[in-house]
Amino acid sequence: MATVLVVDDRASNRELVRTVLRYSGHQVIEAHEGAEALAMAHAQHPDIVLTDVLMPGMDGYELARELRAAPDTAATPIVFYTANYQEAETRPFAEACGVARVLLKSADPQVLMQTIDDVLAEDRSAARPVDTAKVDHEYLRAVSAKLFDKAKALTDTETRFRLMADLSPVGIAFGDRHGSANYVNARLTEITGLPADDLLGLGWLHCASHEDHDEILAVARGHGAGEGQHRYRSQIVMPDETLRWVNVHVRAIRDDDGEYTGFIGTVDDVTALVEADQERRLAERQNDIDAKDRATERLDSLSTLAGGVAHDFNNILGSMLAFQEFVSESVTELTTAGRLDAETGRALLADLEQIRKGGERATGLTQKLLTLGGRSIINPSALDLNRAIRESNELLLPTIGAHIQIVTHLATDLRPVLAEPANIAQILLSLTVNAAHAMPDGGTLTIITSNADNTDNPDEANPTPASEFVRLTIRDTGHGMTPDTLARATDPFFTTKGGGQGSGLGLSTVHGIVSQLGGVLRITSTPGRGAAVTIHLPTADQAADQAADQPIDKPPHSRAPAGGSETILVAEDEDGIRDTLTRTLTKAGYTVLAAANGADALKLAEQHTQAIHLLLSDVVMPGMLGDELATHLLERRPDTKVLFMSGYAGDLMNRYGVLEPGITALPKPFTTEEILTAVRTMIGVRRT
To answer: pTM of this prediction?
Structure first.
């Protein structure tokens, strides 16, 4: 085992040699330049010196001369280990100063180990004197040739670099470790619109916002948080006041020893990409708005269609149910008087009962159509939503089954909402049935209530005017919905249930109720992770427990005197409804003036010299609507009370489907008891 002194200014080179020689069993001592190596050689007397040639300070040539000049190191074998000289270039002055071998750093490690062993094995007892003049001559000749080659290579490299930099599609800035640029390419001046002189030093930071300057300078100094680099996007102001978007990438530069020596920054003009992306986003947003507008138009069309169908259908149902009552009464009277066989009478009444049940089912369908279009007749008042939920839960449990657990989280300070109890019951029934269908194997249905305000906007595209809301969330753990299903969830007649298992009006009806109450409905769902329906309902100004003391415009359903002697002006364009009303009211003792339209009703009023106590008018009639008729009549007879009847009261409602103040309407179809009660109650109302 020999002691080898390795001399090289690069730590990576020393590490490689140390690893190889230690593998061969040698002891390695190291020096990073010639003066340090000379001192170590005199102090430790190594068996061999392996030295680089080009080094700062004392180079390998000077080290060899000094070693040969000193008696204690004159015989120490020396090997030149170089990457800058070929062996032919160094051989003349290497031999002149007694260097045993010249070895290239690119040589195989096996060659390095063998060379060391061969030199150590040679006889070095008779060291030749050094011819200093010859050594200097050969060394200067070799160095001059190498400097010429290096200068030419450097010039070629610089030329190639400038060509690449000048033709680069991105801006480039080089600088020192303080972030000061000493070179910028032509593309950077094009991107910024500034001359090169303005971009040198710290001027190139014009490409970055002030918030990024500290991070950029930290990267140049090697203190950045991003592993010596930083990427960001910035918007810069051009000299002509236009704006330009740029992507900037700053990276620190290290030397071979890992020390930070400067930075390189690249700047890419991405204005076209950003603007294209912004245009794409705007187009997508506009497409979303257009899609919502189309959906709104579709729902409006369906609402109009539903209203028209419901109006005509309710008139037909009203006539059918009224005449069913008349026939049932006649059959009962004939049976009681013995003029009709009792068994035959019972059979006829049973058949008539089936007609009545069918009519009532049809009435329920028309009510759904009106609710879908937001045109069912409602008169909301302050309502305790938590109480409505608790009462509904008792009815919902048998409906959804024991395999589903209902969990409630109801806010204790919940504000009252403006709604009818039937609205909330319908919402809860439809949503819980849908949730149960999504959890056939069981799961959890969570009902949550909380207060919200307009800062928690449920839908930016469909804001509501109310400033305070109550939020109702119903969440299930079912199979969820795909994006396509979610997009169509509230479409009328759309259903994912099998044939005969659903009408497709559940969610659309809920949407209609919520919209009519002035609220917003939002559905979120992920396949396999359940669904959540969130409803925002406007709050009421009064407390829920005060609502019962307030007057309402819808006729109450409590029993009232069934008849009277007052005069009633009936305006109804449907012959069957007009005839049944005349028959019913006349039988109850009233004097009836019946007209087929508004104009005829006004003529009858002009011809009738006595008081007219009540106007009972349809809402939708040809030529003159019911509210127009009422306006004209009240101008002449201000003491006359007004009661509207309609299966579609759209023209009497505000934008949310709530009856305008002071208007009382009876929804069609109605029973004999309902019309008589409403008429008697309305006549008895004291005008304020």
So the answer is: 0.43
